[in-house]
Design a protein that fits this description.
- The chain is α+β, with helices and mostly antiparallel strands.
- It folds into two domains: 4-108 and 353-372, Aminopeptidase (3-Layer(aba) Sandwich); 112-141 and 161-350, Gcn5-related N-acetyltransferase (GNAT) (Aminopeptidase, 3-Layer(aba) Sandwich).
- Helices cover 36% and strands 26% of the residues.
- It contains twelve helices and 16 strands.
- The strands form two sheets. A nine-stranded mixed sheet has the order 7-6-15-9-14-13-12-11-10, with helices on both faces. Strands 1-2-3-4-5-16-8 form a seven-stranded mixed sheet, with helices on both faces.
- Strand 11 (258-265) and strand 12 (268-278) form a beta hairpin.
- Helix 7 packs across helix 10.
- The chain is globular.
- The N and C termini lie far apart (43 Å).
Length: 373
């Protein structure tokens, strides 16, 4: 017998997530409030006896001029992905979303398929024959995740390949950098920092860099640095209102869901970053810095304070989020990968995002529309 998928309340959604070690912040009810251009709905997976066995935040984006939607479950849904009867979990979801007017469904199973240790990543960067991370042998591989990929393909799902030269997909990153915390003392984590990181942290301390926690009122200071970073690194910045909405929505759901850190030197904010917390998973979310006074190493000081606070919170992982899978020296994102790996982070590959076209014609039309944007 298949499961029943139907809407649940925010309270039911949150209670289910609270009973798990963690879930992506993109699968919380509050994330729907961050995305006002999308219609959001909390879904629940129910067994015949009424037990709630899964939840998911679905974001519905309308197709221009048509009352049909792209249904998107970023880094979700929160279900048992190792279940032998996965079909009976996904088929009722597709039926429910089709009933809402979805022409296509996109999801991102939060399932790890491969890991590379920091040493393995460093070796891959140094290997002239390795052009992408996938060219280097992984430290570990998950057979269950590989089986999941095969099952999804057999069910008619299509894997979204990482797009562009830097390996980032249009949705959520398939490759991330994570520092494992489970069972490790802060001294263990500090020993995982490379020499450059340890040197820079000491340099920042000697120069008098102070890292403080900020609040909603400090978001404009963060944003000033973020806009400068966007211009320097050639990406389109989100507006200040996005971060204000994010802070309001996430902290309303849980007062310690989102944090802001500021690295100050002689009264000037030189770097700032946001941190997100769900259960034992802590994410470095958005970072920003100025080109001024880089010699005092504010970024290393700020990250180390965030990593220490994550350990104090009892985190099982500190997540640096997306990384490039391109190992070419000419790629401007390689420096960011080196920075994250230098903090003791290993590379992690998820199974990626998957599409299920419910209406192939509209699915293709939407792809064309997004490509033109």
């Amino acid at each position: 017998m298949s499961l029943t998928v139907r809407p649940v309340t925010r309270a039911e959604h949150l209670a289910f997530v609270a009973g798990r070690p963690s879930a992506s912040h993109l699968q919380l009810p509050s994330w729907g409030d961050v995305k006002p251009d999308w219609r959001a709905e909390s879904l629940g997976w129910f067994e015949a006896d009424g037990r709630l066995v899964g939840v998911g935040l679905v974001l519905l984006r309308p197709l221009p001029k048509v009352k049909r939607y792209l249904a998107y479950l970023p880094e979700g849904p929160v279900i048992d992905w190792a279940a032998p009867d996965l079909e009976r979990r996904l088929e009722p979801m597709l039926a429910h979303l089709k009933g809402l007017g979805a022409f296509s469904v996109k999801m991102g199973p939060p399932v790890v398929v491969r890991r590379w240790s920091p040493d393995a990543v460093k070796a891959a960067i140094a290997d002239p024959d390795a052009h992408r991370l996938r060219d280097a042998p992984p430290t570990s591989e998950e057979p269950e995740a590989l089986a999941l990929v095969d099952r999804l393909r057999r069910m008619g799902w299509r894997q979204t390949e990482p797009g562009g030269e830097d390996g980032f997909a249009a949705g959520q990153p398939r490759y991330v950098c994570q520092v494992p915390y489970a069972g490790r003392s802060l001294e263990d984590i500090q020993r995982g920092l490379n020499q450059q990181w340890r040197r820079n942290i000491k340099k920042a301390e000697k120069a008098g860099v102070k890292v403080v926690r900020g609040d909603y009122e400090d978001l404009p200071a963060f944003y000033e640095l973020y806009a400068e970073t966007a211009e320097r690194d050639r990406f389109i910045p989100r507006p200040l209102s996005y971060f204000q909405r994010m802070w309001t929505a996430l902290t309303a759901e849980h007062p310690d869901r989102m944090r802001l850190y500021l690295a100050q030197h002689d009264g000037e904010v030189l770097a700032a970053a946001t941190m997100l917390i769900v259960g034992g998973h802590v994410w470095y979310s958005y970072g920003a810095s100025t080109s001024r006074r880089r010699e005092v190493q504010p970024n290393n000081a700020m990250q180390w304070r965030m990593m220490c606070d994550a350990h104090e919170l009892g985190a099982h992982v500190y997540d640096f989020r997306g990384i490039t899978d391109t190992l070419e020296e000419s790629n401007h994102l390689l420096g960011l990968l080196r920075f994250k790996v230098g903090a003791g982070g290993g590379a992690v590959e998820y199974v990626g995002e998957w599409d299920f076209p419910l209406n192939r014609l509209l699915h293709k039309a939407f792809d064309v529309y997004m490509a033109r944007r």
